[in-house]
Amino acid sequence: MTALIRKFVECESPSDDAAAVNRFVDLVADTVTPYASVKTKPGGQYGRLLTAEMKLPGRKKDGQVLALGHSDTVWPMGTLHGMPFREAGGRLWGPGVLDMKAGIVFFLFAVQGLRELEIPATAKVVLQLNPDEEVGSEVSRPLTEKNAAASRAVLVLEPGTGLTGKLKTARKGVGDFTVTVRGKASHAGVDFGAGASAIVELARQINQIAGFTEADKGITVNPGVIQGGTRTNVVAAEARAEIDIRVLRLKDAPVLEKRFRALKPYDERCRIEVTGGLNRPPMERGAGIVKLFRLAEKLGTELGVKLEESLTGGGSDGNFTAALGIPTLDGLGAVGEGAHAATASILVERMADRTALIGKLLASI
Ligand SMILES: [Zn+2]
């Protein structure tokens, strides 16, 4: 497993480099060809989408289980030079090892385990790898939803939460807004009063927008980027803020959106334009998800592992599948820490039980 994880990590695949992602997709396709039927589909400006139907023991397949992952990482090409793959301190390190190349390897070994032990799977098992998950899944979303709609359950190979590897049974919905203020430029010395500062107006708006956060309801609003103005001696004609929003419940999204659309300028000479909205619905912890988690919990006990569940503010493609009402269990991939950080690493001692858990799930659902 370590050798295959190394091969996957050393084949760098940043979202914005389609050729690199395609090299990784080809590597996965070559790896699974002996025991799966592989299809790929163009991903527009991104790499190709991969779908692979596993050849598993057991005759009649009833329904489908979708294993969901992504081929892209947040790490630019060449990151390996300063952050090479290595095994040290009981961990595997390297760009993308945790999020989520190890998770893909666990799934592939789980499938091989079922084949070698001749353990039947009752459902058809399909793996889907998306090339654009780290940049919003705009291209892959329709295929994810199509495959999920045809499935009785979705298993997401994203890493678990924390160093105990809690499974993810709820994820917040994610969106973003851009608030653009257009004021009136003038000379800051000669004609100050003729200007209407877009920067001053935006600052007042941001103060109000930050107040949309309702931590007790799980709503957070983060003005993450601001831009504006041209020179110190010019009253700024334009300024803009990009704001990240997270909601726990789908019904909170339209309420929040309304508040953004209702922003009114303090200075009537300024105009406000708001674009954006929710792009990933929340994965709400419904009955189907709880049932799937209980099953995993029971299978974990058989493996001597106590599995816990968690809620995360981060989104994944599991948000889309859960929002369709398909029971979705997320965080089944690696146990480790430092996703998207230089400390990204996974625990070697948790590779086997995670793989066995995925295999048991495929044989039980
Ligand atoms: Zn991920």
Report what the structure shows.
- This protein is α+β, with helices and mostly antiparallel strands and 365 residues long.
- The protein contains ten helices and 18 strands.
- It has helices at residues 2-9, 18-32, 79-82, 97-116, 141-149, 198-210, 252-261, 287-302, 318-323, 351-364; strands at residues 36-43, 46-54, 64-70, 86-88, 91-93, 124-130, 153-156, 167-171, 173-182, 186-187, 220-228, 234-235, 238-247, 271-280, 309-312, 328-329, 336-337, 345-347.
- The strands form five sheets. Strands 1-2-6-3-7-16 form a six-stranded mixed beta sheet, with helices on both faces. Strands 4-5-18-17 form a four-stranded antiparallel beta sheet, with helices on one face.
- A hairpin with a 7-residue loop joins strand 17 (336-337) and strand 18 (345-347).
- Helix 1 crosses helix 4 and helix 8 packs across helix 10 (351-364).
- The longest helix is centred in the first third of the chain and has 20 residues, at 97-116.
- It is elongated, with a radius of gyration of 23 Å.
- The two termini are 25 Å apart.
- The mean pLDDT is 97.
- Zinc ion (ZN) binds at residues 70, 99-100, 133, 158, 316.
- Zinc ion binds next to helix 4.
